[in-house]
Amino acid sequence: MTAVLEVSNVTKTYPGAPPVAALTAVSVTIHTAQRTAVLGPSGSGKSTLLNVLGTLERPTQGTVRISGREVSALSDAELSAVRAHRLGFVFQAFHLLDHLDAVHNVALGLTYRAVPARARLAAAATALGRVGLAGRLTHRPAQLSGGERQRVAIARAVIGRPAVVLADEPTGNLDSATGAEIIALLGDLADEGTAIVVITHDQAVAAAMDRRVLMRDGRIVADDGGPL
Amino acid sequence: MRAADVLLGGLQGLRARKVRAALSALGIAIGIAAGVAVLGISASAKADLLAQLGAEANLLTVSAGQSFDGSPAPLPATAEPMIARIPPVQSVSAVAFVTGASVRRTAAILPISTGGITVLAAQPGLLATVRGGVASGVFLNAGTARYPAVVLGAVAARTLGIDQVTSGTQVYLGGQYFTVIGILSQVPLAPEIDEAALVGFPVAHALLGLDGQPTEIYLRALPDQVQAVASVLPFTASPAQPEGVQVSRPSSVLAARVAARTAFTGLFLALGAVAILVGGVGIANIMVISVLERRAEIGLRRALGAARRHVALQFLAESLLLAVFGSAAGVLLGAAATGGYALATSHAFALPGVAVAAGFGVGAGVGALAGLYPATRAARLAPAEALRSA
Questions:
Q1: CA B24, CA B26: separation in Å to the nearest integer?
Q2: Which DSSP string do the residues of B26-59 spell out, in sequence order?
Q3: Given A109, A114, A117, which is nearest B304 (Cβ)?
C-alpha cells in the first residue's frame, strides 16, 4: 500500500486568549484505497484534522505530505492546484449551487483544472451515471432528495479521479437507509483505488470502514490501523 | 481556469440573482443613458447649426444704427452700388424701412393694432442674398415691385392669420390694400425679415413716400474674404460718416448658439457622471453583500481548487458584466432618447461614436473599480472558515 496522505506531528493552534489547541502532535498516514473513519466527540479536532488533510488550513506545526510531496511550503496557487488534482471533498451540507443543475454542479469539480467546458459536461454526465443519477442531469438541487443531492456532491468530488476523498459527516443530514447507500457508494470508490476519509458520529458508518481513528481533545487516542 | 470559464461563471452568478443584478445595473444604465443622450441630442442639434454656420458664415449686414425715434437710420443712397463694387462681394441687396406704414388685415382694424409688423421696401435679389425660401406664392420681381403687391415674412403672415396665398388675398398697408403674392419661410439669420411685409422699392416710392435711402444692406462675400470685406464696409457704405455704420455677421449668433449648447452639454455630462458614480457605488454595495451571502460558495470553490485569484476574478467578472450590461442598456436608452428628440424636432439623428465608446468604456471602468474591493475581500476569505459559515 502506498501512502497518499501523511500528516506527521501536526499541531494546529487558533490564536485567541487563551489560544485554542485544536490539534496536538497528530500523526496519521492514509493509504491508497483505504477507507478510514475518524470518530470522536464534538470539539475533538476531527474537522480541523480533515481541513489540514485537505490543505484548507495550514498547520501551526508539523508537515503534510500529499502523494509524498511536502505541501507546507507551497503558495496559495500551488496548494489550490493540489486540491484541484489530488483531493475531493464531500460535505454534510452538500454545498451544491442552487442555480446550477446537477450536471453543471458536478462539472464545477473540473473548472479549476482548465478542462474545456464540453469535456467537463461529458465527464460530469458520466460521473452522475456512476452514482446512479443518469436520469437527473438537468435537475436543480431543489428538485432532488437529500440522498440524491449527496450523490451529486460525491460525483462532483470524484469527477477528477482524486487520490483521496475527504468526507465531513456525509450522512449527517440523511436518514439511515439513505446514509447506508451513500457509505456503500463511497466504499465502491475505494475499490477503484481512491482513499476515503470519513468523519462521522455514526458507529454503523464507522463499522463499515476498513480503519477507525478515534480522536479526543485534539489527539488521536486510538487507531486500529485497519487490515494491513 | 480558462477565460471563458471566468465569464461563464460571472454570468451564472448574475443569473442566480436576476432581479438584483438588473436593479444594480440600472444605476449605471441611467448614468450612461444620460451621458449618451446629452451627447447625441447636442450633436444632432449642433449638426444642423454647424451646417447652417458653414453655409451662412459669409453673410454680412450693414446698417446705420437707429435714429432718435428708434426707427432704423438711413444709409446713403450710394451705399449699395458702392458695396457691389467690392470685388469679393458676390451678391448684395438693400432694404429700406418704410416709416409710418402699418399693416392690418383690413381697414376696419384699429390703426394701433400693427402686430409689430414692419414694412420694408426690398429688391427682387433679397431672397437669394439671404438664402430665404418662399413657403407659398412667389417673391417680388421687377414687375410686381411696381404694383401694390406684398410678400409677408413668416411671422408677419402668422400674425395676420394668412397661411396660404390665394388670388385676392389682400392686406391694408399704409392706407391702401396690397395684394399678398407670397409668404416666406423663416430666415434664420435675418429674423427682421420674418416680421416684415416686403414691398417693391418703386411702389414704396410712389405710394408710401419712401425717399430711396436704404436702411439695411445684406451681402455675401467670398468665404475666405469675409473679414477683409467687413473691414472696408464702413468706408464704402458711408465715406462721410464711416463711424456711424454698423457691420455685423449674423452667423456669429449661430456660433454663440453652438457654444451655448456646448456649455449645457458639460453640465449634463457632469450630472450623468454623478449618476454613473452612484451606480458604481450601488454595484460595489451589491457585490459586497453578495460576497457575504456566498461565503459557502467561495469556500466550496476553494475546496474544488480555486486559487485566490480565481475567486477574485469571478467576482470582478460579475461586477464587470453588470456594468457592461448596464452600459449597453444605457447606450440603447440614450440612442433611443436621441432618436426621439431627432424625430420630435426633425433634426438629423447624430450619435457620435465617441459617445457610444465612452459610454461602454466608462461603464466598464466603473464596474471594474466597483468590483475591486469585493473581489479582494472574497479572495481573502479563508476556505475552511468560509465553508464553516454555511
A1: 5
A2: HHHHHHHHHHHHHHHHHHHHHHHHHHHHHHHTTE
A3: A109
Give the residue on B whose Cα is nearest the Cα of A52. B384
Q: Which amino acid is at A23?
A: L
Chain A residues with beta carbon closer than 8 angstroms to that of B4: 117
Closest C-alpha to A91, from B313, B302, B10: B302
Given an 8 Å threshold on Cβ–Cβ distance, is B303 in contact with A89? Answer: yes
ipTM metric:
0.94
Cα–Cα distance measured from residue A9 to residue A64, given in angstroms and rounded to the nearest whole number = 9
* Structural contact between residues A143 and A149, judged by C-beta atoms closer than 8 angstroms: no
Mean pLDDT of A198-202: 91
Q: Is residue B163 less than 8 Å (CB to CB) from chain A? A: no
Residues 6+ apart with CB under 8 A from B58: B90, B220, B221, B222, B223, B226
Closest B-chain CA to A100: B12
> Which grid cell is B380?
481573502
Chain B closest CA to A155's CA: distance in Å? Answer: 12
Entry pTM: 0.70
Helix, strand, or coil (residue B104)? strand
pLDDT in tens, B50-92: 776 777 778 889 988 776 776 777 888 888 899 999 999 999 9
